[in-house]
Amino acid sequence: MANTGLGTALRHWRDRVAPQAVGLPAGGRRRAAGLRREELAQLAGISADYVIRLEQGRATSPSAQVVEALARALRLTQDERAHLFRLAGLAPPGPGTVPRHITPGVHRMLDRLAGTPVAVFDAAWNQLLANPLYTALMGEWRGNDLNGVWRNFLSPNNRVRDTPESRKALQSALVADLRRTAGTYPGDRDLRALIADLRRHSTGFAALWESGAVGQHEAGRKTIDHPQAGTLTLDCDVLSVAGSDLRIMVYTAQPGTEDADRLALLGVLGTQSLGVEEAPRPG
């Protein structure tokens, strides 16, 4: 049966989002002031064909991950996000799950940091959103690599230059973070699955988990080897959003330095965007 309610809601919310508000150019002739289907697909990380099928009611069972991505791309409020889940035939995430909603206020704050590499992670270190400059700096991740814990234990796709000491400290802090998150959100099935997968696939993670490793993230300087811009040494700060357990990671360069020049170059180089219909669950 065609899910026309879902399609109608998506079209309505898409029409009210100005492309300038999400960092897209407004050029060219438009039938409406809002997002094109292709632009919504780009922002949500799904294919344009899938957006069309959702709006036409021919795709009737989107996953929770796709619904969450659409809610973020459309900048829905908490109530609108819950309504979108129900329209998709899914229960809205409950209070026992890791918060993944990015409020319109946080979106507006990120809009004002367009010239700064910024990414938003949830309490399980799943990347929820990254601006183009962050993606240009760190690379475009997908699948399991969208989870920062998975990536630091199991993936070679990392441009940050580590020493054995800094890597050990980071991994201990990540495991301690995940342990605290598991205690705070015991009902989150995705989180439990992530921890089980990490313990099964990474002996290093399993050892730290069993040992009760402790640690905390601290502001610091990171050296990043970029394939086009060269080596950049930047300040990395992780900010917390009160009441949501979201983490905002920000990279900045000291003004007037070669690092600042290379970061500006990255803004010119940009990054390619991908369209994936159903990305695997991070972790």
What portion of residues belong to β-strands? 5-15%
User: CATH topology of the largest domain, what is it called?
Assistant: Beta-Lactamase
CATH class of the largest domain: Alpha Beta
Question: What string, H for helix and E for strand, traces the elements in order?
Answer: HHHHHHEEHHEHHHEEEH
Helix content: 40-55%
Under the CATH scheme, the architecture of the largest domain is 2-Layer Sandwich
CA(first)-CA(last) distance: 32 Å
What class do helices, strands and sheet pairing give?
A: alpha+beta
Q: Can you count the beta strands?
A: 6
Number of domains: 2
- Describe the sheet with the most strands: 6 strands, antiparallel
Give the number of helices.
12
How confident overall, as mean pLDDT? 86
Which strands sit side by side, in order, in the main sheet? 2-1-6-5-4-3
Shape: globular
Mind telling me the C-alpha Rg? 19 Å
Spans where pLDDT lies below 50 across 5 or more residues: 271-283
